[in-house]
Amino acid sequence: MLSIDEKYSLALDARLNSYSPYSNFKVGALCILENDTVIKGCNIENMSYGLTNCAERSAIFNTISQGFNYKDIKEIVIIADTEKPVSPCGACRQVMAEFLKPSTIVTMFNLNKETRVCSVKDLIPFAFTSGDLHE
Ligand code: THU
């Protein structure tokens, strides 16, 4: 099991890869699997701003792209330079609802290592999920 210090330092590493020349707001994220494999993500912006990919979604999409089973994700970690530990945007919460379990742990940091921990269900209660679609 990774310590808080290890999560913080790996998330900081992930943040270093951020491509954010338009906002200058660097975000790092990690998906941690049941066996403690760590997959990193960062925010990647575009001149056409709406095409930006947040760090959380990058980490989840990297996990899937690299052939890991998203069902093995036990925790997602996020870090940014915010006053309080950074809180994921609405789009990322919806993607979390698709690929993570309601009980998956979300660990949020700021650069001062202030930490907030909750579950996906806490971030997106009453989520719209595939079970809501009629065949
Ligand atoms: N961003 C993230 O990567 N994750 C969040 O939780 C909040 C926002 C990115 C998107 C954009 O590149 C920059 O931060 C400013 O919104």
Q: Explain this structure to me?
A:
This protein has 135 residues and is of the alpha+beta class. The protein is 28% helix and 23% strand. The chain is globular, with a radius of gyration of 14 Å. The mean pLDDT is 97. It has helices at residues 4-16, 55-65, 90-99, 120-123, and strands at 27-33, 38-42, 73-80, 105-110, 115-119. It has a 5-stranded mixed sheet with strand order 2-1-3-4-5, sandwiched between helices. It is built from 4 helices and 5 strands; from the N terminus they run αββαβαββα. The longest helix has 13 residues, at 4-16. It binds tetrahydrodeoxyuridine.
Number of strands: 5
Helical content class:
25-40%
Overall average residue pLDDT: 97
For the largest beta sheet, what order do the strands appear in spatially? 2-1-3-4-5
Give the low-confidence spans.
none
Distance between the termini: 40 Å
Strand content: 15-25%
State the shape. globular
Structural class: alpha+beta
Radius of gyration equals 14 Å
| Ligands (ions, cofactors included) | tetrahydrodeoxyuridine
How would you sum up this structure in a few lines?
The protein is of the alpha+beta class.
Give keywords.
135 residues, single chain, alpha+beta, five-stranded mixed beta sheet
Which secondary structure elements does this structure contain, and how are they paired or packed?
Layout: H1 4-16, E1 27-33, E2 38-42, H2 55-65, E3 73-80, H3 90-99, E4 105-110, E5 115-119, H4 120-123
Parallel strand pairs: 3-4
Antiparallel strand pairs: 1-2, 1-3, 4-5
This protein binds tetrahydrodeoxyuridine (THU).
